[in-house]
Amino acid sequence: MDFLFGPVPSRRLGLSLGINIVPYKTCSYNCIYCEVGKTTKLWAKRERFFDPSLIEAEFEKNIDKVGRVDFVTFSGSGEPTLNKDIGRLIRFVKKKGYPVAVLTNGSLMFMDEVREELALADVVVPSLDTAVYRSFLKLNRPHTSLDLETIIAGIAKFSHSFLGQLWLEVLFVKGINDSKEELDALIKAINYIQPTKTQIGTVDRPPALPWVEKLSDDEMMDIYLYLSAKLSVEVELIGNFNKENDKFYEDIENSIVKLINIRPCSKEELARIFSIEEEKVELIVEAFIKEGKAFEYEYGGKLFITGSMARIAHLGV
């Protein structure tokens, strides 16, 4: 098949049948971490790369042969929104009865026509690895016509009107976008965008440049807790480091202590954030209270857990 690949098992999308609608490594970014390799055509102009009827014919010919499909995903070896037929192709797949996801770097979402076309999808997953311009140049190495503030504004404008799910994806590279300055800038941008959720990960496959370094599990945990405490949207770990991994739970009690010292949480929130049963949270919190590591107080008719007695005193509780 020339355009279809998979179905690929995906923790996020189930069995995902991919459709690649741009030539190999034609992209508006040349990301240093890209698992597909270096961009061979750095491009920011939308084109008709292929006759869309050929893609539709291949889909019709093969869709009954591939087995179960949970999502049809426009992704592949480049930036799918560079293909100006993506709206037509999303509409075609939807008429066949399949939910559609689009994995995009988000760089062209400032364009009205791109937002209109992506609005036809069920799930859109744009990337935003940094909200700091110098890091954007170093990490994503964009086409010279692209501006970071414009890109963030475009993603936000789409998010505020989109009726589907918007999952904002952030990939961290050691020493580039993992500082407190970077995280605080991201927090500001993400709270402005208001995605359905924010998914964070680090390098877990061979990157385009050999010096690119992944973050450790502990470093990712610290970032996860910091973002969870300060963002108004759900944060989710993706890739090899996620809530399903045992490593996430190796030091879960210390992770809870870290979080409640950053932000007071209800027991229900702790259960949701760490994907554990409320009964287990209850046992952990009770032990913390006895040890003086945690304090429970009521505010606004709701019970919260904090690691700081000073925080309660400040509230006058």
Explain what you see.
An 8-stranded mixed beta sheet has the order 1-2-5-6-7-8-9-10. Helix 3 links the parallel strand 6 and strand 7. The chain is an alpha/beta fold and 317 residues long. The termini are far apart. The C terminus is likely disordered.
List the helices and strands and how they pair.
Layout: E1 4-10, E2 14-20, E3 26-27, E4 41-42, H1 52-62, E5 71-75, H2 86-95, E6 100-104, H3 112-118, E7 123-126, H4 133-139, H5 148-161, E8 165-172, H6 180-193, E9 197-202, H7 217-230, E10 234-237, H8 252-262, H9 267-274, H10 278-291, E11 295-299, E12 302-306, H11 309-315
Parallel strand pairs: 2-5, 3-4, 5-6, 6-7, 7-8, 8-9, 9-10
Antiparallel strand pairs: 1-2, 11-12
Helix pairs in contact: 1-2, 2-3, 7-8, 9-10
Strand adjacency order, main sheet? 1-2-5-6-7-8-9-10
Based on CA inertia axes, which overall geometry fits? Answer: globular
Largest sheet: number of strands, sense, barrel closure: 8 strands, mixed
- Extended strand count: 12
User: What is the ordering of alpha helices and beta strands?
Assistant: EEEEHEHEHEHHEHEHEHHHEEH
Overall helicity: 25-40%
Residue stretches low in confidence (pLDDT < 50, at least 5 long) are: 241-250, 311-317
Radius of gyration: 21 Å
- Count of DSSP-assigned helices: 11
Q: What is the SS-derived class?
A: alpha/beta
Which percent range describes the beta-strand content? 15-25%
**Spatial gap, N to C terminus:** 66 Å
Mean pLDDT: 87
